[in-house]
Structures are given as structure tokens and as C-alpha cells.
Amino acid sequence: MPISRPRGTKRAHICQYVARHDWGIGTFSRNFATALAVGAGLGTSLIAQANANVIKAGFTIGGVEKTFQQSQSLNSEDISAFHNPSAVCAPLCIAPLSAAAGVQTVGEREVIGFVADVVSQGNGLLIDSREPEDRAAGFIPASVNVPASLVQADNPFLTDIMHALGARSFEGTLNFSDAMPLIIFDDGPSTSVASGLITQLITQGYPADKLSYYRGGMLVWTALGLNTEDAKS
């Protein structure tokens, strides 16, 4: 029978794993949960409106203050950087609305709410499924890079990755009863990297109801004027 861990232990576990792979992950201020505007039904409230064009919410990661912001001024080059349809899906590269049975598809408000209410408490992760070189173009604040290419059956460290996400080994079998909830994204609706990672996780036994799919990804995130970070941030 799985033994429950104290709050925060799961996040500490994955922090250690991510640190060993130079992916980087921060510790959030609990005050973020009460300082983020995410709309009705999420139990949080509007914290700040800088001006008529920008709505922002502040939080702390790794001791550094950061914000979610939305601007009405868009940069077409930033947006187009995340339109990367694969040649193998021609003539149309459009990801399905649902990544897998039992997996919820979420939007931007749900992503922000998840960061506010779950990630900020150390009880979940926002997963960027892209390769590091793709992530270098920009990523959603608070996300962690777990490339889909790592979650493959032939990866000798696959079990370690599952353990880092909260799974436990019991008599040679992975038990996911204590696994963390995850929201997973990629470049956006013209790619299928995130849905591929979701499929791989489910194949390993990860419960579908602990997985969510942000289909909009980086393409829609930037098209809505939401801010991103890069490795230098």
C-alpha cells in the first residue's frame, strides 16, 4: 500500500530530478494563489490592472518576482515562431481537440488557475513537452521542460522520470496513486508533441484524469498577448 508523503515532498523529488538534467524549476510563493486573475469559478480574484492595455498578476519563483501579463500589442514574429507543422502530417496539421479519452482539454484561464491553485502549492506541474531547442524560443512562465522524447519505453531512465512525477514502484509495477496532476503543452494546434507525451504517459499507467491538455500551446498563448520567458529570463 502506498505511503502518503508530506505536502511538498513530491515537488522536492521532481525538483531534484529536473536539476540533475538542467531543466530548471522554481519554488512559488503561496501568495500567488491569492494574487492572480483567472476569472469566475477558480477561487481567485483580480490583483492588478496596470493600465487599459495590460492585465498582470505577480508571483515569485526562485525568489524572483515574475508576472503573467496580457498585452494588446502583438508581435507577429513571436507568434509565427511557434507555427511549426510537421511534414509528416501533410496536407493538414491540426491537432485533435482531445488528446486522449479521459484527458481534459483546457484553455488559458485554466492554465493560469492551475499555476495559482496547484503548482504554487507544490502539488502539480505545468509540463512543456517540446525539445530544449524548441523551448529556447520561449515558454510559459512556471513551466518545466520534460521532452516527450524522454518518455519512451527504451529510455533506461523512464522509471526515474515516472518516480519524479510521483509514481512509486511496488513489486516491479508502477503505482500512480500519488502521481501529480499535470497540464501538458507544446507549440500549439499545428503540432502533436503534447498529445504524444500524454499517450506515452497513459501507456505507462499514468491516470488520464490526472492529465490535462493545453491544446493552444505557445501559438495561441502568444497570439493572445500573454507573456513568455526564455532561458535568459
What structural class should be given to the helix and strand makeup? alpha/beta
Distance between the termini: 42 Å
Mean pLDDT: 77
Strand order of the largest sheet: 4-10-9-5-6
Poorly predicted spans? 1-13, 15-52
Q: Compute the CA-based radius of gyration.
A: 17 Å
Number of domains: 1
CATH third-level topology = Oxidized Rhodanese, domain 1
Query: Number of helical segments?
Result: 7
Q: List the secondary-structure elements in sequence, H or E.
A: HEEEHEHEHEHEEEHEH
| CATH 2nd-level architecture | 3-Layer(aba) Sandwich
**CATH-level-4 superfamily name:** Rhodanese-like domain
CATH class call: Alpha Beta
Number of strands: 10
| Multimeric organization | single chain
Bin the helical content.
Answer: 10-25%
Largest sheet: 5 strands, parallel
Give the overall silhouette.
globular
SSE layout and pairings?
Layout lengths: L8 H12 L27 E2 L4 E8 L2 E8 L4 H5 L23 E3 L1 H10 L7 E4 L3 H4 L7 E3 L12 H7 L3 E3 L2 E3 L6 E4 L7 H12 L6 E4 L2 H7 L10
Parallel strand pairs: 4-10, 5-6, 5-9, 9-10
Antiparallel strand pairs: 1-2, 2-3, 7-8
Helix pairs in contact: 1-5
Detailed description of the structure:
With about 230 residues, this protein is an alpha/beta fold. The protein has a single domain, classed as Oxidized Rhodanese, domain 1. The protein is about 25% helix and about 20% strand. It has 7 helices and 10 strands. Helix 1 (about 10-20) packs antiparallel against helix 5. The radius of gyration is 17 Å and the shape is globular. Mean pLDDT is about 75; it is low at about 1-15 and about 15-50.
